TrEMBL record:
Keyword Transmembrane included in the entry's annotation: yes
Membrane topology: Multi-pass membrane protein
Organism of provenance: Kribbella pratensis
InterPro entries, per database record: ABC_transp_permease, LivM-like
Subcellular locations according to the entry: Cell membrane
Keywords, comma-separated and alphabetical: Cell membrane, Membrane, Transmembrane, Transmembrane helix
UniProt name for this protein: Branched-chain amino acid transport system permease protein
Length: 570
């Protein structure tokens, strides 16, 4: 059930509903209990959740609980106290309710994690119960406070320097949280960190702060873009030379760059492609066969920049080959054809082994032993020291992939805002209407396939050297499904959404390996929930968001009309 906000009181009428007398004191008591409990021991076993067994010395997860308690205190003071002016803009009560739920969930999971890892509830020390009690008090207090009518946050205008400072603080927080989360090796600790992040995001959304951040980002788009890439650039320097986390980061960037290319086909042009992984594989195989590996089958060894262009060109050619005869069909039929193309590519790589065809790919053995890249005397396989910090092999590839991702984002954004991009959107919305208005639908759909394949081929050439081997088993249908899921989860037709979706779908399986047997079940459940509660994705495209709102308003009008007819019939 959604909360209904109380409309503002008219002059001379009854005031807005007041909170119950005990609501505010209960909330303050809950904040105090959460903080006090976090300074006490949570676990008897020091090897659980990063050692939470020391009194008056909070561990990492205890500090996260303290941060949430401080946020609850700010919301309480915005409801009644010295921050009431802030409360006139923020929906403090709705945010406090969301925070109470997530903080209670956080503490319940802490108790479950300690119980599961130490084989007994007796190993949970009193500090955890004190903090859990405080979280429950915050939750009860929040539901005793009334919801109030608030102003539109888009009207909140602050000095430009303050907005830029807010963006800088936000991006610094993103860098810190990302470094902290990836440094967590325990699965339970990582899950609790995700709950903490979910709590903060939910509070921002429920209070309306996320709307303000969105408007600030639109007004300072260049600052946001530069700060985002600065944070991404600084990320390897926070890992202390750890190759484990940087390996995950490079996989995320490859996945994100490839998904961004697929976003052109699916998100802009609306063409359902279930064999897109073949374009990534074609670029990887071109780089592998032209490398200096002992198993490479092509004698020509051009510079890597030339190899990248050749790999991307081969992928784009395959996109034209598959697109020319099949783009006259659409919908489910196009999905089936592209699915078949992906399987044809994989089996072709199996058969080009010298027995069933020319020896280009070494068949199921693939091309192992691919050496590290060396561009301009810079060897990507060596450890380099910058500002006293060691950057290993995966850090080197990370910077190269970051440049590639920036290029892919630039191509996508320029195409999206061009006449070609508007033509793709028109085809996605109504192909017949677009064709009637003079849009070259076949040519633009073919161009979408070619450009998307070209970008995937670029990513594939770097992936081959990063992985050190290429084999047909790397490019199965499941990988295409994950790419499509990243776009649907993040938000079709958006840049930030696809990057976020790719990060979630690539990072979670690596950090939650004990869920590996249920990975597909969890992904399916996640997508079902997204379709039910947020069909436009985590980061909604403004065009699609307006469409969903218009559909909701039309549905509401139809329901009201039906109710009116029923009343008249009575």
């Amino acid at each position: 059930m959604t909360d209904v906000k109380t409309p503002p009181a008219e002059p001379g009428t009854a005031a807005e509903p007041e909170a119950k007398p005990l609501a505010w004191p209960l909330g303050l008591a809950g904040v105090v209990l959460v903080i006090v409990g976090s300074f006490l021991s949570w676990s008897y076993d020091s090897s659980i959740l990063g050692d939470l067994s020391i009194n008056f010395y909070p561990g990492g997860l205890q500090i996260l609980a303290i941060i949430l308690a401080v946020v609850a205190l700010v919301l309480l003071l915005a409801e009644k106290g010295p921050l009431t002016k802030l409360g006139a803009w923020l929906d403090a009560t709705a945010g406090l309710r969301a925070l109470g739920v997530t903080l209670t969930l956080y503490m319940v999971l802490v108790v479950i994690a300690i119980t599961a890892d130490s084989d007994g509830l007796i190993n949970v020390n009193p500090g955890a119960y004190v903090s859990l009690g405080g979280a429950v008090l915050i939750l009860v207090s929040a539901w005793m406070l009334p919801l109030r009518h608030l102003r539109d946050m888009s009207e909140a205008r602050l000095p430009a320097w303050f907005e830029i400072l807010a963006i800088a603080v936000l991006m610094a927080a993103v860098l810190f949280v990302a470094a902290y989360a990836l440094g967590l090796e325990d699965a339970w600790s990582f899950i609790l960190c995700l709950v903490f992040l979910a709590a903060l995001v939910t509070v921002l959304f429920r209070t309306g702060s996320l709307t303000w951040i969105g408007h600030v980002s639109q007004r300072n788009r260049k600052v946001l873009t530069l700060s985002a890439f600065l944070v991404a650039f600084l990320f390897p320097f926070t890992q202390g030379g750890s190759d484990a986390n940087m390996s995950i980061a490079t996989q995320v960037l490859v996945f994100a760059a490839t998904a961004m290319g697929l976003n052109i086909v699916v998100g802009l042009a609306g063409l359902l492609d279930l064999g897109y992984i073949a374009f990534l594989g074609s670029g990887a195989y071109v780089a592998a066969t032209m490398s200096t590996s002992a198993f490479a089958t092509v004698g020509w060894k051009p510079p890597f920049l030339v190899v990248m262009l050749i790999g991307a060109g081969v992928a784009a050619t395959l996109g034209l080959i598959i697109g020319t005869p099949t783009l006259r069909v659409s919908g489910d039929y196009l999905a089936i054809v592209t699915l078949g193309f992906g399987e044809i590519f994989r089996f072709s790589m199996f058969n080009l082994d010298g027995n069933n065809g020319p020896n280009l790919t070494n068949g199921p053995n693939g091309v192992p032993g691919i050496p590290d890249l060396e561009i301009g005397g810079f060897n990507f396989g060596e450890v380099h020291t910058v500002a006293g910090i060691e950057l290993g092999r995966f850090s080197n590839y990370y910077f190269l992939l970051l440049v590639l991702t920036a290029f892919v984002i630039l191509v996508f954004s320029r195409l999206n805002n061009s006449r070609i991009g508007r033509g793709w959107v028109a085809i996605r919305e109504d192909e017949k209407a677009a064709e009637a208005m003079g849009v070259n639908t076949f040519g633009l759909k073919l161009l979408a396939f070619a450009v998307g394949a070209f970008l995937a081929g670029l990513a594939g050439t770097i992936k081959a050297h990063q992985d050190g081997a290429v084999s047909p088993d790397q490019y199965i249908f499941l990988e295409s499904a994950f790419l499509l899921a990243a776009i649907v989860l993040g938000g079709m037709g958006t840049i930030a959404g696809v990057l976020l979706g790719a990060t979630i779908l690539k990072l979670l399986p690596e950090k939650l390996r004990f869920f590996s047997e249920y990975r597909l079940l969890l992904f399916g459940l996640l997508l079902v929930l997204m379709m039910r509660f947020r069909p436009e994705g985590l980061v909604a495209n403004r065009r699609r968001q307006l469409e969903f709102h218009e559909e909701d308003e039309q549905l509401a009008v139809e329901i009201d009309d039906e109710h009116l007819l029923v009343e008249e019939a009575k």
